[in-house]
Design brief:
With 187 residues, the chain is mainly α. The chain contains six helices and four strands; from the N terminus they run βαααβααββα. Helix content is 58%, strand content 5%.
Length: 187
């Protein structure tokens, strides 16, 4: 069980930390550096952000719809949030090893979310910054609603996870690929 306020504080603080990295390291970076991949089979920083942006395009509207529905139905927050087993699995699959900052689990990107064969421009950085700001607003709105409501996932419209689990997953996913983008930028 996770206290409702603690879950929202954690995702909010992590998003603020990511936003600071994005604004200070990537928004000011030299464009060719953002396009430089550490190896031929690795993503450059822009591809990392395009990947995240595609997830944001899916989940941000889902979050907003869920919040609007829950508020209109008066489904108030519970004191604690109990993660689902599939939600916990998804979150844990995104976590990085604390020492190496490398993914514990290798996961190939789904075709629709894989920008590896495309040229991505610098607007990907501004878009991910905008999406992080939207997430901060969404987390504020979620303060007084239940995080147990299930929303569709990118896996399938039939596979639904609890809102709290998807918040945790998306933030862990954002951290994972922002660190990957930092590695690409420094290569």
């Amino acid at each position: 069980m996770i206290p409702h306020t603690e879950l929202l504080q954690d995702v909010t603080q992590t998003t603020k930390d990511l936003l600071q990295i994005l604004e200070h390291e990537f928004a000011r970076a030299y464009a060719p550096d953002l396009r430089k991949a550490p190896a031929p089979d690795k993503w450059n920083a822009l591809q990392c952000f395009e990947h995240l942006n595609r997830y944001g395009h899916f989940y941000l509207p889902e979050f907003e719809k869920a919040i609007q529905k829950l508020k209109s139905e008066g489904k108030h927050a519970k004191q604690t949030f109990k993660p689902g087993w599939l939600g916990n699995y998804a979150v844990n699959s995104m976590l990085l090893d604390p020492q190496t900052k490398q993914p514990r689990t290798k996961m190939p990107a789904f075709k629709n979310y894989n920008p590896s064969s495309e040229a991505v421009n610098e607007t990907a950085v501004q878009e991910i910054i905008h999406q992080q700001k939207q997430l901060l607003d969404i987390f504020k709105q979620a303060n007084d609603i239940s995080l147990d409501y299930r929303i569709p996932t990118t896996l399938s419209p039939f596979i639904k996870l609890k809102l709290g689990d998807v918040f945790r997953f998306l933030i862990a996913h954002n951290v994972r690929h922002t660190i990957q983008a930092q590695r690409a930028l420094r290569s």
